Amino acid sequence: MFARPIRVKSNTAIKGSDRRKLKADLSTAFPSLSADELSELVPNKEELNVVKIYAHKGDAVTLYVLHKNPLFFELEKRLYPTVYVLWRYPALLPTFMTWPPVLQKMIGGADLMLPGVVVPSSGLPDVKLGDYCSVTLVNNRAPVAVGTAAVSTGEMHSLGMKGRGVCVLHTYMDHLWAFGDKSGPPSLPNAECDGQEEYEEEYEVNEMEMEEEEVVEKCVEEEQCPGVTVPDQACSGVDALSLAEQEEEKGDNEEEDGNQDDQKMPQETMDALLLQCFLHALKSKVKKSELPLLTSTFLRNHMFACCPSGKQIDIKKSSYKKLSKFLQAMQKQHNLVRMKELTKGVESIVEVDWKNRQLRSFHVPEETEGEVAPVQDEGEGKSLYHPPEITTMYSVSSRLEPLFLDVQKRKGTILQPAEVKHLVTEYVKKNELVDENNKNYVTVDPILCDCLLERSEYQEIGSLKWDDLFSRTLGRMQECYQIVYPGQRPIQKKGHIEPIDIAVSSRGSNKKVTLIKNLEVYGLDPAVVATALQHRVQASSVLQPIPGSKDKVLVQIQGNQIHQAGNLLLDHYQIPRKYINGLEKAPKGGKKK
User: In this protein, which residues make up the domain named SUI1 (predicted)?
Assistant: First the structure.
């Protein structure tokens, strides 16, 4: 199920009540765990995160992460342990044993077939259809896969050990395992396997013959296991790399992986990237007329724009940790710039040494791109975010039903404003209500009187202007809206669409944080928006659940970032200004001294 990349929807710290519920659910699902073992897995005082992800076929999965390792994943309201937990408690689940070459097929997304199961002298574990199962390799009790039993133990024997044995959900070396620290399984000798060693040669000789039969069988039956998602590559496991080759390849590609995962980027690499972008910005972006230049503006408008494609500047992952310390080093050690505090607490670059040998000898890279554009879909084949189309609609109310009775528009029918005007115009023309003396007016007949006038107006108003007629009609209908996400069917809802709300809140004595909510309404992933905003302003961000909302989270970022948040939503994500609340609260720019 995790054979292909996963997409993170949200990452939040678990609440106290949810922590207690998780511990109770684990105690019910895995009664063999003692109270001390449960406390180790779900500690009371250590930070435990709830990460909501989507698998490659769209399955919604919840992860429970401790010390950056996923311990359990929840699928369709059922908890499963990961290999990280099973390496600590290998006897937690009933275990089926197989040969090392079979692991390659399971990593690729295939299930464990019964011909590949090694039956120990003690016999197969007693399981029923759908029971939790783990899979181990010969000579090592450390589980390498987690899943559910495809059939009961009795049926396995009655089928002659042919067919599907375990529906595999998660394996060692899949993308769920890679979400953690990527550690390998421990070596846990299996006494049961001493007698199996003499058969290894015979297995290897007959391996290809058996594999061909199993692969054909898997290709035919792969989709038949309920509740399991298997990628298309499951049938191509014959030519899969060996474990040793994958480990070697993983080591060779470690530098490449570091570029994709900023958290693994060493400080030296980030320091070098900062220096490169700094020199590039000074040589090709900054002009003498711009000085003095705020350091924050220099970082945001110039250094970010010089960042090479595929990389991101994150000062917190460098040895400097802060922009001010980096610029001080550029001033003292390299004599490239001179800093000055023109306003209390706000530093600016007041001078650049354009004749500096290091700056003059720097060669601007040929291929650079502008500021790294935030990408909404971080899965395979990154695709840019497209805003939904939002249309205001109106629903026929019971009071206006007589007006639309002739055209069969009953109560609850949703119409566009243009349709409403057209139907009202047709009603007026059909009943010859246009004032003969002044065609700008419409005579009020009994139906229009009951639908559009107040009781106090019955004797006073005999005619209405066309504009007044239309505005009164729309005003007495229930407002609705239609939202169309790219590639999806239109969704119609009653009421007003919730705008994206940006607000500033105080924390402590003199600290402010910016809060952003309702991003999900517009198809935006809060985690992606938080990351994009974090890189723009170089401030920490966190996602928090909104009380009373199941599927909504709040983006919180340090400082008053309304201006930057507004620019991100308006310019990059193309959200219309009328759907964003709070932009007027942005701090006013002070005058330069």
Answer: 500-573
Asked if 192 contacts 141 with a C-beta cutoff of 8 angstroms, the reply is no
Residues of the chain with pLDDT under 70: 191-266, 366-385, 508-509, 550, 588-593
**pLDDT for the residue numbered 324:** 86
- DSSP bridge partners of 493: 481
How high is the pLDDT of residue 88? 92
Tally Cβ neighbours within 10 Å of residue 429: 11
Q: Are 59 and 75 in contact (CB under 8 A)?
A: yes
- Give the per-residue pLDDT at 509: 67
| C-alpha pair distances (Å), 103 with each of 127, 138, 163, 200, 430 | 21, 11, 17, 15, 77
In whole angstroms, give the CA distance from residue 443 to residue 422. Answer: 17
How many residues comprise the chain? 593
Given this model, what pLDDT does residue 346 score?
Answer: 78
Structure tokens given for 399 = 């009071």
Helix (H, G, I), strand (E, B) or coil at 527: helix
Strands 500-507 and 580-581: parallel
Give bridge partners of residue 122 from the DSSP assignment: none
247-283: b (≥16 Cβ within 10 Å) or e:
eeeeeeeeeeeeeeebeebeeebbbebbbbbbbbbbb
> Helix 466-475 crosses helix 417-430 at what angle (to 10 degrees)?
120
Residue 196: helix, strand or coil by DSSP?
helix
Is residue 513 a contact partner of residue 530, using CB atoms and an 8 Å limit?
no
3-state helix, strand, coil in the chain (%, to 5): 40, 25, 40
3-state SS, residue 102: helix
- The predicted model scores a pTM of 0.39
